[in-house]
Amino acid sequence: MLSHLKYVTQSIWSLLDTAWYFAWGDLKTRYKRSVLGPMWLVLGTAIGVVGLGYVWATLLNMDADEFVPLLTVGLVVWQLVSTCLTESSNVFYKNASVIRNLKVSFWLFPLQLLMKHFLYFLHNLTVVVVVFIIFNVPLSWVQLMAIPGLFIVLINMLWVIVFVGVFATRYRDIEAFLSSVMPLLFFLSPVLYKPSNLGIKSQLAWLNPFTYLITVIRDPLQGNLPPMFVYVVSLVMLFVGWVVTWRLFVRKQNRIVFWM
Amino acid sequence: MAKIVFQNVSLSYSIYDARSTSLRNALVKIGTGGLLEKSGTNSVSVKAIDNVSFEINKGDSVGLIGHNGSGKTTLLRTIAGIYTPISGKIIREGSISSIIELGAGMEGELTGYENIIRIALLMGLSKTLIISKIPEIEEFTELGDFLAMPARTYSAGMTMRLMFAVATCIKPNILIVDEMFATGDAAFQKKAYDRMNNLINDAEIFVFASHSEALIKKFCNRLFYLDHGLVTEKGVFS
User: Fold this and answer.
1) Interchain CB contact of B100 with A (< 8 Å)
2) Nearest-by-CA chain B residue for A108
3) B60-80: buried (b, 16+ CB within 10 Å) or exposed (e) per residue?
4) What's the number of domains chain A is made of?
5) Which of B83, B110, B127 is opposite residue A29, by nearest beta carbon?
6) Is the N or the C terminus of chain A less surrounded, counting Cβ atoms within 10 Å?
7) B22 vs A contacts (CB less than 8 Å)
8) For the complex shown, is ipTM > 0.85?
9) CA distance to partner chain A, nearest, from residue B24 (Å)
10) Do A171 and B21 touch (CB under 8 A)?
11) How many beta-carbon pairs under 8 angstroms link A with B?
């Protein structure tokens, strides 16, 4: 077990530079020849926050002061988690030309994908900062707990990317499946609301793994320490996910190249 | 010290079509206890390398010939470690560079310089090392100002120059090249020939697949003939 952990962390550590360079390349490529460049990322999120904030605050009959910061953090975390998940189905497929022609580490492209969305997330954080200033969200030490929360989310997403990536390379239906359920998942996950808003049905929200990933970052940012069980469940997800993904990796790492 | 040894290496893989890559089919298969396996899956198993043994030592420069689909590229990929055999043993000693498909790892929107770093990183070189080699690559490729242009503007020959320059800027112990010199012009072929000769003289290994006998005679001192996944050595020629 420990030797496996050491192996994964070492391979990832040695790839950080390369993955980072490629993630930046993705960012540059995506906004090449657009005037605003990566500013579009921030702008897109800001437009989403203003639009959704206005409509949903009215619909849900909530105070903008309370609702907009909730929505902003929820949306930014949701984007990180959901885009990692949808793009994971293509993580190996998209890089087929490299995988078939150069001997590269299995972990490079999953890591690149994660870093790309982490970079997008960092860009989007500017919207969170602006919203927090506008709506006077008080600063407190509890907010620092969002940092370990972010790590829990990122390390969880890495196994998700690898796990879904391997399966979706072999079974091409998964990509279409994911893109058709993501819009639904957006409403089933507490992005626009908090689990407690569901009243007695809030247990339903806690059956959804995304609830934990959102809460573990959002609650601290809003000045509340998440309940202990949120950390326990997120860490159990992380552990079980990695064990399963590791077994998949050992069995299938050499076959992926033949599936493309 | 470069060395490649194949001992009874076999490689086969399944080609899946839409039916067998669909999840529904896999689920049906589980549901019916594998009964449908024969009629339900349309995957075809290809035996690409069939019980192959050979030894390539330092200073060897091997030319692979064979008709289309005889397994040249598959063998190159197996030597490079991209494909893992299902049985047999492969011993590899020394660092490997491979140029198998033109433009692999390049991103059209990024400049030539950025692509040099990308390819080098994919080949496992460090960023500082490749940056120190950029003047040499500039000189070898003769691409001049085009290196600052997006790579999508490059012709096949220009892409070839760039990839070859990066692959050979750090002397690999083993260089693996698939048919592709055809895209380079005469001046480039001359340059590539000189560089290749240097590599070979430095007691390294060169493996080259081509349909051109003239090129193989020029570069290689051993000749492997491939047919339906079988390798036969056609004797050493000078």
Assistant:
1) yes
2) B122
3) bbbbbbbeeebbbbbbbbbbb
4) 1
5) B110
6) N
7) 171-173
8) no
9) 8
10) yes
11) 80
Q: Taking CB atoms and an 8 Å limit, are B105 and A172 in contact across chains? A: no
Gap between the Cα atoms of A84 and A251, Å rounded: 23
Question: For A185-243, what is each residue's pLDDT tens digit?
Answer: 998 999 988 888 888 888 888 999 999 999 999 999 999 999 999 999 999 999 999 99
In a domain? residue B22? no
Decide if pLDDT at B37 tops 60.
no
B232: number of CA atoms within 13 Å, CB side? 4
Q: Nearest Cβ partner of A104 from B23, B107, B122?
A: B122
Pairing of strands B87-93, B3-15: antiparallel
pLDDT of residue A12: 84
Average pLDDT of span A6-24: 87
Q: Which residues, 6+ apart, have CB-to-CB distance to A43 below 8 Å?
A: A36
Q: Is the Cβ pair A100, B105 closer than 8 Å?
A: no
Range of the domain at A72: 2-259
Long-range contacts of A31-40 (CB under 8 A, 24+ apart): A32/B109, A32/B150, A38/A123
Distance CA B3, CA B205 (A): 7
Which residue of B18, B84, B121 is in closest CB contact with A18?
B121
Tell me the pLDDT tens digit for each residue of A90-146. 999 999 989 998 888 899 999 999 999 999 999 999 999 999 999 988 999 999 999
What is the pTM for the complete model shown?
Answer: 0.89
The CATH number of residue B187's host domain is 3.40.50.300
Give the residue numbers spanning the domain of B173. 3-9+54-233
Structure confidence by residue, pLDDT tens digits, B66-88: 888 888 889 999 999 999 999 99
Most confident of A5-9, A30-34, A68-72, B45-49: A68-72
B123 closest CB neighbour out of A99, A100, A102: A102
Neighbouring CB atoms inside 10 A of A5's CB total: 11
Task: Please indicate if any CB of chain B lies within 8 Å of the CB of A180.
Answer: no
